[in-house]
Amino acid sequence: MLSIEVIEDAIQQLPEPELAELQRWFSEFYSNIWDKQIERDAQAGKLDTLADEALAEYQSGLVTEL
Q1: Has residue 66 been placed in a domain?
Q2: Which residues does 63 contact at the CB level (< 8 Å), separation at least 6?
Q3: Is 51 a domain residue?
Q4: C-alpha–C-alpha distance, residues 38 and 47, integer Å
Q5: Whole-angstrom Cα distance, residue 40 to residue 34?
Q6: Rounded-to-integer distance, Cα 57 and Cα 47, Å
Q7: CA–CA separation, 22 vs 28, rounded Å?
Q8: How far is 30 from 37, CA to CA, in rounded Å?
Q9: pLDDT (tens digit per residue) in 18-62
Q10: Whole domain around residue 36: which residue ranges?
Q11: Rounded distance between C-alpha atoms, residue 5 and residue 18, angstroms
Q12: Statement: residue 66 has pLDDT above 90
């Protein structure tokens, strides 16, 4: 496995078009990781309190429509 330092050095040597492609790829890659974490948290009930608070505020009229 490559070290972070080797990866950083390689990234710094990329021409701009390839750097833009790497940024696009990494953004999509990291978004997928984040989505999976949110899904696991939701299934584990870790977001229930936040959802309950949001519903309570909505039902009490403490929200502003966009």
Answers
A1: no
A2: 57
A3: yes
A4: 9
A5: 10
A6: 16
A7: 10
A8: 11
A9: 999 999 999 999 999 999 999 999 999 999 999 999 999 999 988
A10: 15-59
A11: 19
A12: no
